[in-house]
Amino acid sequence: MSETINALILGDVYGQPGFRAVYIGLKNLVKEKKADFVIVNGENAVDGFGINPQIAGQIFSVGTDVITTGNHVWQHKEIYPLLESDEPILRPANYPAGAPGKGYAVIEKRGVRIGVINLQGRLSMAPIDCPFQVSMNLIKKLKSKTDIIIVDFHAESSEEKEALALYLDGRVSLVVGTHTHVQTADERILDKGTGYLTDLGMCGPGLSVIGSNADISVRRFLTQLPLKIEVADTPAVISGIVATIDIKNGKTVKIERFQKESIV
User: Fold this and answer.
1) Which terminus of the chain has a lower count of CB atoms within 10 Å, N or C?
2) Phi, psi of 35 (to 5 degrees)
């Protein structure tokens, strides 16, 4: 058995263009990147806001192992029973008690257990439970099962994302940010072996304003009117990373950021 495992992680799926790109392109992307394990953030898969059971099922059907989400996961109530099920679809773990669903999962691939934690930031977002404290409690629980732990931190603030990554350095394999839909260029391996990227970017319309129709978005800023946002109908870009993780110690040994134009 190989001493490493490759994790492919994709940023927020935005609307039909992003969903189509992932649904049609993921299997080839897995082959191209030699991925062993796949995480997809499905936060905005349905018309730019939230996810439903049908879309989640289709994302799983093309090779996704875990679906993570964020603050828009509550948009469609029909997803709540799926969040409560054994399916590996997560909502941020630091929502208060009583919120549907779970914030972590452990999946076995190639005989290797991999833990995934979904968290949400608080700067410029809802004042939910502390992601730093919640993450540490979950890590203690997961360490008895695996040394490979991947964190999707769905947050607005780059400051908050970097702070969490440094706090967790050496405790988890990888911390990746989602939510802003803009891929950052700061992929690196921290001093104690944790891989990090501030934001994965999105899987969604390339010519857009973070996935939305550019003309409408510009008019919103020019007029300050509450115009309804619409998903841009332009060819999609798939954004994410591939991280190579040492199975023995859970440290990231390589991290590769990519953006790939979709055929749809």
Assistant:
1) N
2) -80, 140
Distance CA 206, CA 248 (A): 39
Q: What is the pTM of this model?
A: 0.96
- Residue 216 belongs to a domain: no
Pick the catalytic residue: 72, 154, 179, 181?
72
Count how many domains the chain has: 1
Measured between alpha carbons, how far apart are the two ends of the chain, in Å?
Answer: 37
Q: What is the CATH number of the domain that holds 75?
A: 3.60.21.10
Residue 33 lies in a domain: yes
Residue 67 lies in a domain: yes
**Is 72 noted as a catalytic residue in this protein?**
yes
| Three-state secondary structure call for residue 219 | helix
For residue 161, what are the domain limits? 4-206+235-261
Please give the chain's pLDDT, 264 residues, in tens: 579 999 999 999 999 999 999 999 999 999 999 999 999 999 999 999 999 999 999 999 999 999 999 999 999 999 999 999 999 999 999 999 999 999 999 999 989 999 999 999 999 999 999 999 999 999 999 999 998 999 999 999 999 999 999 999 999 999 999 999 999 999 999 999 999 999 999 999 999 999 999 999 999 999 999 999 999 999 999 999 999 999 999 999 999 999 988 876
Helix extents (H) in 39-130: 53-61, 80-84
